[in-house]
Amino acid sequence: MDDDLGGRLRHALCTDDVDELVGTGCDLADAGHQEEALTCFRRAVALGQEWVWFNVGNTLRELDRPLEAIVAYEAALRAGETDAWLNHGAVLEEVGDLVAAMNAYRAAWERGGQPQGLLNLATLLREQGLQDEALAALGTAAEAGYPPAAARAASWRWARTRDPALEEPLRAGAAVDGDARADLADLLLATGRSREALEQLQLGAAAGQVACFLPLGNLLTDGHPDGDVAVDVTAAERAYRAGIAAGDTHCHHNLALLLLGRGETEAAEAHLLAGATAGDDLAQRLWRELHREDD
Fold first, then answer.
1. What is the C-alpha to C-alpha distance for residues 38 and 245, in angstroms, rounded to an integer?
2. Cα 264–269–275 angle (5° rounding)?
3. How far is it, in rounded angstroms, from Cα 267 to Cα 91?
4. Could you tell me which of 73, 69, 59, 75 has the C-alpha nearest to residue 25?
5. Separation CA 148–CA 160 (nearest Å)
6. How many other C-beta atoms lie within 10 A of the C-beta of residue 277?
7. What pLDDT score does 4 carry?
8. Distance CA 229, CA 193 (A)
9. What distance in Å separates the CA atoms of residue 283 and residue 272, rounded to the nearest whole number?
10. Which residues of 154-186 are buried (b: 16+ CB within 10 A; e: fewer)?
11. I want to staple 264 with a disulfide (CB 3.0 to 4.6 A). Which of 95, 191, 248, 259 is the partner?
12. What's the CA gap between 170 and 155, in Å, rounded?
């Protein structure tokens, strides 16, 4: 911790100034000093500022203490901090209490006016096979003027119907949703516009849209039969590595295939193991195949 933050922490803990405590706690949290931030927030709560339970919950979640975070969020909600509904739902989802998470996401919209709650609710509903209910939730959020909900609805409809008429809503959503941009590229490929598909994926990758790295790498690995996209294995490797850095664990498998093709077996196996550990079925399958051959 630098001297400035350390000095602010010492001063804050000697004061009853809640604004100073909360401000110092937020800066400490942003700098990665979660335990010290938690101390500031707990002191603010002890001084009677119950709404700061929200900050306590956020910090406990960062510290990977989800059950304590749930208790803190519930205290914040009792204090009238409606912004806590969304985070409350997220941590309930993390611990596997999906019914309670869905209720929290509904409340995030109905009591807190947060349309992101409807998008999160829709995702859980879809995962449980409730497609119509999921699209209805997205529709409500879209009607409230929340562009990511309209983008996600277009993306899901493309996955289900592959209807080229979805091009315009996918285009409209590409800027706010990486899945929509990746699906727009898929539509463009399906309708013979590979160069434009490549450009869309490159735009998405440059913007940090995680969903674009894997299809970008795949397109550069294989090229396209129409000749508008040439094979560029070096650029494909960059895309896969960027996808891994951004959190797309599926890129491990595809990068491993490139490495195997160059004879870099040890590096490939490291990526397969990383992908398999993260739950990627393709990485698990290829790992097993390689080790069966060794046997």
1. 29
2. 130
3. 35
4. 59
5. 18
6. 13
7. 85
8. 10
9. 5
10. bbbbbeeeeeeebbebbbbbbbbbbbbbbbbbb
11. 259
12. 7
